[in-house]
C-alpha cells in the first residue's frame, strides 16, 4: 500500500511540473524571437565546444607524434639536435597531454649530458606533479639513478626508500630494491646490504638477478680476516 504522505508529495510534484511546463510554453508563445535566439546561441555554443574538443584532440595527437623526433635524436646521442627539437616542441605544444613526457625527455637529456643536479630536479618535479600519475613512480626511480650517478649516495638511498614506501608493488620495485642494496654496500652499511640482498632474493626468486643478489649476500656475510 502506498504511503499517503508520499502520495501527496508525488501529486504536488506533478502539479509543480505541470505548472512549470505551462509557464514555459506560455513564455515561448510570447517571446518567440527571443526563444529562437537562445536556442540558436545554445546550438552555436555546442558546435563550438565540439569543434574545440576535436581540435584539442588533434593537437594532442600531433603533440605525441612530434615528440618522436627529439626522442630519436636522444637515442642517437645527438644532444644539440634533441635540445633544439624539444625547445621547438615546447613553443608549440606546451600544455597538451604529452607535456609530462616532453619534460621526461628533457630530464633524460640532462641526465645523458651528465647534468645530474638539473636532471634530478626535473625528475623530482615529475615525481611530485607529473600527469598522468603513472609517470610519477618512473620519475622517482630516475631520481634514484641520477643521484647515484652524481655520487650522492645518501640522497639516492632516500629516493630508493621513498619509492619502495610509495610503490611497493610497482614493476620497478625489484630493481629499486637491488639498487638500495648496492647503495648500502657502497656506503659501508654491510649488515643493511646483506639484509637488502636477502629480501630481494626472497621476494623475487624467479628473477635472473636473484642469483647475483644471493652471491653478493654470501660474499658480504663471510667473515673477513
Explain what you see:
- The protein has 225 residues and is mainly α.
- Helix 3 (68-75) packs antiparallel against helix 4 and helix 10 runs antiparallel to helix 11 (210-221).
- Mean pLDDT is 78; it is low at 1-13 and 34-55.
- The chain is built from eleven helices and no strands.
- The radius of gyration is 30 Å and the shape is elongated.
- It starts with a helix and ends with a helix.
- The chain has helices spanning 4-30, 32-66, 68-75, 79-93, 99-112, 116-129, 135-149, 153-166, 173-186, 190-203, 210-221.
The tally of strands reads: 0
The ordered string of helix (H) and strand (E) elements is HHHHHHHHHHH
Strand content: under 5%
* Shape summary: elongated
User: How confident is the prediction overall: mean pLDDT?
Assistant: 78
User: Which structural class should the secondary elements be placed in?
Assistant: mainly alpha
Task: Report the helical percentage.
Answer: over 70%
Distance between the termini: 92 Å
> Major β-sheet, in short?
none
Helical segment count: 11
Question: Nearest-angstrom radius of gyration?
Answer: 30 Å
Note poorly predicted spans: 1-13, 34-55
Amino acid at each position: 500500500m502506498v504511503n499517503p504522505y508520499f502520495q501527496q508529495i508525488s501529486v504536488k510534484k506533478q502539479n509543480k511540473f505541470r505548472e512549470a511546463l505551462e509557464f514555459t510554453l506560455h513564455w515561448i508563445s510570447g517571446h518567440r524571437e527571443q526563444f529562437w535566439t537562445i536556442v540558436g546561441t545554445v546550438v552555436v555554443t555546442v558546435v563550438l565546444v565540439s569543434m574545440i574538443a576535436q581540435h584539442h584532440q588533434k593537437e594532442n595527437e600531433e603533440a605525441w607524434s612530434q615528440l618522436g623526433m627529439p626522442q630519436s635524436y636522444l637515442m642517437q646521442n645527438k644532444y644539440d639536435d634533441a635540445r633544439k627539437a624539444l625547445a621547438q616542441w615546447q613553443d608549440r605544444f606546451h600544455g597538451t597531454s604529452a607535456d609530462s613526457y616532453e619534460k621526461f625527455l628533457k630530464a633524460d637529456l640532462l641526465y645523458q649530458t651528465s647534468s645530474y643536479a638539473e636532471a634530478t630536479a626535473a625528475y623530482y618535479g615529475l615525481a611530485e606533479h607529473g600527469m598522468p600519475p603513472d609517470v610519477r613512480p618512473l620519475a622517482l626511480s630516475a631520481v634514484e639513478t641520477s643521484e647515484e650517478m652524481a655520487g650522492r649516495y645518501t640522497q639516492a638511498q632516500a629516493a630508493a626508500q621513498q619509492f619502495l614506501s610509495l610503490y611497493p608493488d610497482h614493476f620497478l620495485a625489484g630493481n629499486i630494491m637491488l639498487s638500495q642494496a648496492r647503495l648500502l654496500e657502497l656506503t659501508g652499511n654491510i649488515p643493511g646490504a646483506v639484509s637488502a640482498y636477502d629480501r630481494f632474493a626472497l621476494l623475487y626468486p624467479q628473477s635472473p638477478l636473484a642469483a647475483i643478489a644471493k652471491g653478493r649476500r654470501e660474499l658480504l656475510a663471510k667473515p673477513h680476516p
